[in-house]
Design brief:
Helix content is about 55%, strand content about 10%. The chain has an eight-stranded mixed β-sheet. It has a four-stranded antiparallel β-sheet with strand order 9-10-12-11, with helices on one face. Helix 9 packs parallel to helix 12, helix 17 packs antiparallel against helix 18 and helix 18 packs antiparallel against helix 23.
């Protein structure tokens, strides 16, 4: 979520700026950097904020950080105390939620509606809170904007309560209808807003550069905190960003990205509408880098995400962003890295989702003929042939997809399933290892554990099931099979522990545990007949645990 269009970044221009700044880097630039940030970059940010976001600030009020997480850490070390009450949007940005909880803040979930955070609810819940964390320009994750009356109410409350408002303007530059909204900080007459911005969304996240604008009265405290806790960021990268902004490249890049994102957003929305019709309600807000799709039927969005991942897409469930409330199921879909031609594949995937693999195969076949080197089309065609039961054609298309795009995790996982069907566990193991190199996940580790268990590699299988549980501690199937593996290794106490955890998480898995024991008895010990029985049991386990035939990409 929120990854900018890396395929459209001006890499040649950036490389020239890097080379030029590296040649001109003085000896002083190789010493320890200013913890508050390089002065030229702070000046460039101040000029940009004044023009683009309506924020009037001096360069000394700007502190260059390691992204938004760096800004959060700096705020926490300078102003926060363990146990401070913090208004937090519900639903809200999950990484900020986790960071604040780790710091020791007491989060006060404040509901969000079509006008943003309900300030009156916050005043009723915690009138003396010390902080309010908000995303007013494009609320994360609902995408709504904080209305002007509520902006004014929030600022008035903070001034009266002696609280601080932290504004996370993570993608405020991207607005597709009308003029971009000014920042909340631009209305701040009482100097109670700390404004956090980031270059991760507008340039690229590997920079790890962001910035924090603090009230004038806090500058000295933040300078002292930087000297103590912040080692500073690379002078070279800061110099390159500063020149990128001063020479006008930054403004031109933003203009191009707004146009590109508007086209990609429209293409994805149209493809989803064409594919799913009235089964999905697409909520297009005025800005942002993702869209929200709501299923019209009452279905778990987490289950929908699992199904979507099985077909090579990676949405996020809206429910994962909720603290206590319930804003209904929804899928958060990033469109920034989906070219229009790839968005058209959504209609093909819709046929698969509707149980029409033949229709999907026909459409993907057409796509392959039009673009023979389109890895996603070969992958979709392979998935369709797999659903139709033609393993030979599925194997051919999936191998082509993996060759064209070696990091296509979905192709590797589905190839592993084909090899399982063909009683070839060694090849299945190889494909899953390639998938893990590209994108480790609990599900892939679990599948690897299944294969290694079938190969009688109990130590390896146990390690893979533990890896799955490390990524997802509530993964009941992994607890079940780890219990079986430990029992086979003679660790009966450990086996019982994981069996109990599996039952506690999902009582319906009790039947699965008995099936697991059956599988263990059938695992290969070198004889061909038992090897076939073991592979049949692995295929059965794939179905028992609700796995879809296609795989995550």
């Amino acid at each position: 979520m929120g990854l900018p269009a890396l395929d459209a970044f001006p890499r040649k221009l950036w490389a020239r700026l890097v080379a030029r700044e590296a040649r001109q880097l003085p000896l002083s630039g190789m010493a320890y950097p200013d913890p508050a940030g390089w002065q030229a970059l702070r000046q460039a940010i101040a000029a940009y904020l004044a023009i683009a976001r309506g924020i009037a600030c001096a360069p000394r009020q700007i502190f260059v950080t390691a992204g938004y997480q760096g800004a959060l850490g700096l705020i926490a070390r300078t102003l926060m105390r363990s146990g401070d009450a913090v208004w937090f949007e519900d639903p809200g940005y999950h990484m900020a939620r986790d960071a604040l909880t780790t710091i020791g803040a007491q989060l006060v979930p404040v509901p969000v509606d079509s006008d943003g955070m309900r300030v009156s609810d916050g005043e009723a819940l915690a009138p003396r809170a010390r902080f309010a964390f908000v995303t007013p320009s494009h609320q994360s994750p609902l995408g709504v904007a904080l209305s002007l009356p509520r902006r004014l109410a929030l600022l008035a409350w903070a001034a009266t309560a002696g609280a601080w408002v932290v504004e996370d303007d993570y993608d405020g530059e991207f607005h597709y209808a009308g003029r971009p909204l000014p920042a909340l900080k631009s209305l701040d007459r009482d100097d109670v807003v700390l404004y956090a911005g980031s270059f991760s969304k507008v340039l690229f996240p590997a920079l790890r550069l962001g910035y924090l604008v603090v009230p004038e009265c806090l500058v000295e405290r933040f300078e002292a905190a930087c000297q103590t806790f912040h080692a500073g960021n690379s002078r070279l990268e800061q110099a390159v960003v500063a020149q990128f902004m001063v020479e006008g490249h930054f403004a031109r890049h933003l203009k191009r990205m707004r146009s590109l994102y508007a086209a990609r957003r429209a293409a994805l929305a149209e493809a989803l509408t064409a594919s799913f019709g009235d089964r999905l309600q697409i909520e297009l807000q005025a800005g942002g880098m993702h869209l929200l799709a709501r299923p019209t039927s009452m279905v778990s969005d987490r289950e929908l995400v699992q199904l979507a991942e099985a077909y090579g897409t990676a949405p996020a469930p809206l429910s994962a962003h909720m603290l206590t409330g319930d804003c209904g199921p929804g899928l958060l879909l990033s469109f920034t890295n989906i070219p229009e031609v790839r968005a058209a594949a959504a209609s093909c995937l819709g046929n698969l989702g509707e149980g029409d693999p033949k229709g999907a195969a026909d459409e993907f076949e057409t796509a392959v003929q039009l673009k023979p080197k389109w890895a996603d089309a070969h992958y979709g065609l392979g998935a369709a042939w797999y659903d139709l039961g033609d393993l030979a054609l599925a194997l051919k298309e999936l191998r082509t997809a993996a060759r064209l795009d070696p990091r296509n995790v979905g192709a590797h996982r589905l190839l592993a399933r084909v090899y399982v069907q063909q009683n070839d566990p060694r090849s299945a193991e190889g494909e899953l290892r390639l998938a893990l190199q590209s994108k480790p996940s609990a599900e892939i580790h679990f599948e690897m554990g299944l294969i290694l268990g079938q190969l009688a590699n109990l130590e390896g299988a146990a390690a893979e099931f533990r890896n799955a549980l490390r990524l997802n501690p509530r993964f009941a199937p992994a607890h079940s099979l780890l219990g079986v593996t430990l029992r086979r290794q003679g660790d009966h106490a450990g086996a019982l522990l994981h069996f109990r955890k599996a039952v506690a998480i999902d009582p319906l898995r009790v039947r699965g545990i008995m099936l697991h024991q059956l599988v263990v008895q059938q695992v290969s010990d070198g004889r061909a007949a038992q090897r076939g029985a073991g592979m049949a049991a692995v295929r059965l386990l794939y179905r028992i645990h609700g796995e879809q035939p296609q795989c995550v990409n």
